Amino acid sequence: MARHPPPASQSAPLPSSAEPARHRSRSSRASGRVTLSDVAEAVGVSPMTVSRALRGERRVDPALVEKIRATAAQMGYVPDPAARALASQKSAQVLVLVPMLSNTLFVDLIEAVHKELFAAGYHALIGVTHYDRAEEEQLLRTYLPMRPAGLLLTGFDRSPAARALVAASKVPCVHLMELGDGSGTPSVGFSQADAGASITRHLVERGHRRIAFCAGQLDARVMQRATGYRRALQEAGLYDPSLELLWPRPTSMALGAELLDAALRLEPAPDALFFCNDDIAQGALLEALRRGLQVPQRVAITGFNDLPGSDQMVPPLTTIRTPRSHIGTEGARMLLKLIRGEPVDPPSMDLGYELVVRQSS
Amino acid sequence: MARHPPPASQSAPLPSSAEPARHRSRSSRASGRVTLSDVAEAVGVSPMTVSRALRGERRVDPALVEKIRATAAQMGYVPDPAARALASQKSAQVLVLVPMLSNTLFVDLIEAVHKELFAAGYHALIGVTHYDRAEEEQLLRTYLPMRPAGLLLTGFDRSPAARALVAASKVPCVHLMELGDGSGTPSVGFSQADAGASITRHLVERGHRRIAFCAGQLDARVMQRATGYRRALQEAGLYDPSLELLWPRPTSMALGAELLDAALRLEPAPDALFFCNDDIAQGALLEALRRGLQVPQRVAITGFNDLPGSDQMVPPLTTIRTPRSHIGTEGARMLLKLIRGEPVDPPSMDLGYELVVRQSS
DNA sequence: CTGAAAGCGCTTACAG
DNA sequence: CTGAAAGCGCTTACAG
């Protein structure tokens, strides 16, 4: 093991920061990679000490740490994530599963998650389930063997097999967007049902009496909003099941136009439409424009989520602003705590929502 | 190494597919993980043979392969990606860097890339640069040490340091969305300049004489579209630099409204506006609606990319449909070839674009 | 077609 | 505060 020539790099000029560190030919590795041992040899200590120093572990002489840090930087040493993962039995990756990226809601969520995680030295590995239980299961089967440090899942609706995979992996996991059932499962979100009830009540207060619920996608959260809608209308004595348009098709602006059309054909016609998501509400608003239908005079329209463009609509859309960025940040923080073995006292964190009244209602 | 009790799992019932395979207590590993050696022992061959059989390498007795496959499946064996990466010096991850996820253009790109890569056994590791060279550099510094099998980058505009990192890593790399400079750099995209010229010419043919170019973000591809715009107007003898509104701010529907306002204040006023992206064009269309400004009679409006909603606008937006899904698919395929060491004969693949004429022009 | 040996680059666990 | 030993779970390269 002593076939290295004496280290010469210490007197070498520092590489320009604009260039990647050159690989040293003095390395014994065929890969040309600078390893922990290379650094250890250059400094004249054991690899273990370098490992400790670089990871900021206690119990290393501060002066030595400084020297090791400097030498490592100068030599362009970068830890090998694969080796680290293999030795420590865990990676720096956090698996983040969302239903869809075309809904900007989840883009906001991911951006916030990434930012928080990256700052803590973790990487977000993003998986998209397309609202498909089988796909989610496959993603878990594929990525769980990578020993992610943590797991961030959207909601609670998944297959028993998926649940079992997560449980068996013992990887710390936080659920986002919804609140748990109080059983102590870590989650960060808000009450989708309460939010649905809130915007429905707003419509009732505005004097509307025949309020339809127009939905596409029909995922778990949409159905929770429907629950809130029902609750609010029942309380007001205005509930009529024939006013629920629950279409399983994926949402889009075009679907919103179709839903508006269908809703207006109901007899007697509704005087207000609660769309389960802003994209279909926007589509409905544009369809109303095309038809010359006055909103909200002829029919009020509301959405959910406050997505980009909703404030630009004609008229601007009344909606529920959901705290997805905040959820991403707090969800990541909670996960980080779990990863570190710290306690999370309220395992379920309610971040609320906000009714944004604009001119469409 | 002979401290295992005799394998009993062969007669054990197959685990229900709805449950993850249980960890065998007979494993010598503290991690409880089923390893290659466990499978080898159960079958009665060497770990090397199991490794070869499971990877589908030639030169293994077909009958043995079958037996190994079955036993591995029954035992719930899953290869450890970290160990594999460490031993083979490369991972199954492909690093995909895009500027922004809030532009659905890149979501479509990523979806297509993921699908193609996943089917080939690779995983897309997504990084978002936010149109920031420093961020891109940092992502490369962070993820390149993971030894990704390949690299998928958006465009060619990056810092010299980023280029150097990519080159030094020797990781196969394909550039997406733009075409190369003909120097043989692998790329899949289309000519942004030609597309910009094409839609400009369309406006000229419609009889417009004062055609403004309204842009936000001003990334490399936007500026290439501007180049095409200029070229087309110069050819028509209609070029006027004062008609170029180049705003560096990030695009949004609200910015589109502002750009419309600014464009209409030009003197003499333009009769057509070419927006560099559909989101700002949509914003402009809505602002025109608010002002009661007739489109296209008073002013024609066109966009770029054909994003969701453009066909729903009032009036529907004339735009350029860009083949991002196709680019994602073909880009991933080209990368897969490079990874396998196969030749890619035209290293630059032009997938074209399509002028979509609707009612806004 | 199959296997024994060595090693990938780290960290864990145990000593001192 | 520091280090020698062993091992994480695979694959490469060399034999046969």
TrEMBL record, chains A, B:
Q: Which InterPro entries match?
A: Cro/C1-type_HTH, HTH_LacI, LacI/GalR-like_sensor, Lambda_DNA-bd_dom_sf, Peripla_BP_I
Query: SMART domains, alphabetically?
Result: HTH_LACI
Q: Mind giving the lineage of the organism this protein is from?
A: Bacteria, Pseudomonadati, Pseudomonadota, Betaproteobacteria, Burkholderiales
HTH lacI-type domain residues are 34-88
Q: Where is the HTH cro/C1-type domain?
A: 35-68
Assigned keywords, A-Z: DNA-binding, Transcription, Transcription regulation
Its name, as the record gives it, is: LacI family transcriptional regulator
Give the Low complexity compositional bias ranges: 9-19
Source organism per entry reads: Comamonas terrigena
For this chain, one GO molecular function annotation is: DNA-binding transcription factor activity
